[in-house]
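Budget justification, computational time. The allocation requested in the original proposal was used primarily to generate structure tokens for proteins on the priority list. As evidence of use, we reproduce two of the resulting records. The first is shown immediately below.
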Amino acid sequence: MKTNINPIYIYYSMAIGLETTASNIATFLTNIAPVISIILIVLGGIVYGLAQTQPPEARGKWQTTAMGMVIGGVIVAAIAGAAMLIQQTSSTLLT
């Protein structure tokens, strides 16, 4: 049995599927960003504290890594906190 499916219907349903998928990904990232931020900041603090117990030639590497983790956590928190503002601004930017 042969069925006739309108190609426009397939395109429209694919567009809705892509929009739903993108929305789900955005929601997931918005929900997980604060957790990642806190984990990075706490681990950075732990690594920085442990770096103080290392010999001087190794201490700098550990401190650099720890500060990178803390700064990364702060940047993730800032982006997550401003995500809605960024979305609103970018959606009206070209109109």
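The second record produced under the same allocation is shown here.
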Amino acid sequence: MIHLSEITAPAAATTPEISPAANLGIDALFTDIQSASKEDYICPRRQLVFTHDADTNRYGINLDRADGLTGYQFRTNSVFNKQLASKSAPGVLALSRHLHHTGQQDLLCKVVNEQLIREENGRAMIRTIQRGDGARRARAIASDMFRPIDDDIIFDTLAPVLDAKRQEYITLGGRRTDLRTYAKFITRDPILSIGKREWHAGVVASNSEVGAGSFSLSAFISDSFCTNGIIFKKMEVANISYVHRGSRFTTDFGNILEDRFKAAELASIRALVADAIDTAFNPRHHGQLADILEQSHQRLITGDVPTVLDRVAKDVKLTEAERTSALLHMESDEAHQFGVQAAITRLAQDAASYDRRIELEQAGGSVLTMTDAQWNRVADLKAA
């Protein structure tokens, strides 16, 4: 077990109820990664059968044998369902959303299965996982050439690098979702103080085991030890996508028992990850972050504050409800670019999911990295 308590931010005196958007402790995150049981399967695409249980209102996937009998059955999660629909045929994903929300689940399954049975050739990899609740779920459908870099490879490589930097950095924790795994790290000491706020620089490490992007390290800043943060997606420090050039899995049907990578490939991946992590924690990025923060306080709102905030919020894809909430969080003494992002990133604490939290923190980074021309176009907007 990897323990990183020595580089963890001080815990609160009481343990509040954990919200869907809360950062979990780094030890809890690592335990989840190491204890999860992962199995991958190969199945001809035409032998897949998408199902829906009306009693539980849950979807599932059957991997039928060549003789038509069911070989394996798994419940599915929403990531799998979306991937399956999008890979079935053009337009099926949009149709599936309509059918699901209008209670036509049987028709949805029929549409997907009709497309699958047309696949004369081609095999699919079905990725499954079993976590704390004991249920094994299908979490991704991919090509039989898919070779993901899993979280255990990433974070086993990350741990010793962090251990060597424990005097400089602490962790804010992170979270593992169905889509990606995230971990956040910041400097022990602030890099900048502006008014009532002290800012710590760091990085967000994220990885996907289900094909939703590659391993990446993005610049991150946090307001002291509070839970608000800003992710600068445009300032991606590193991105590793390993291209496997070997043959397909030899398994025709069933559980994949062969290794995804040869020993030399695995050593190469670990070396790439270690180099990327070491680069990401180089303090040369801190000055750039400090400059962005200082500049954001100088970019004033010269028009109507609610109108400017609403326009920027629309540009970064906030929902109508989120735009209304952001206005309530806008500080009266922060009528500038920084204040706009602060109102937006404040929403992250109450997001419906951790994935949405990350999107809102990335939205804050998008606001702060607007060009002068982009900011000037919205800063003097008047009320309608």
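A brief technical remark on that second record: The CA atoms of residues 146 and 267 lie 18 Å apart.
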